[in-house]
Amino acid sequence: xxxxxxxxxxxKVLEAQEKEIxxxxxxxxxxxxxxxxxxxxxxxxxxxxxxKAIEKMKMALM
Length: 62
Description:
Blueprint lengths: L1 H10 L4 H12 L4 H8 L3 H19 L1
């Protein structure tokens, strides 16, 4: 239960687009290419946003 609360709290530090990407990747289980098509961006952009978002979430959990 504590982990879920921590993850929910770490979502608060993300921008809207970063939240969308993380949710699509890890909750909807989509590939980066599928997320890119859904959000009208390139796979490389999704990869960069995802990496940035994960780093932000890690920092929020510290």
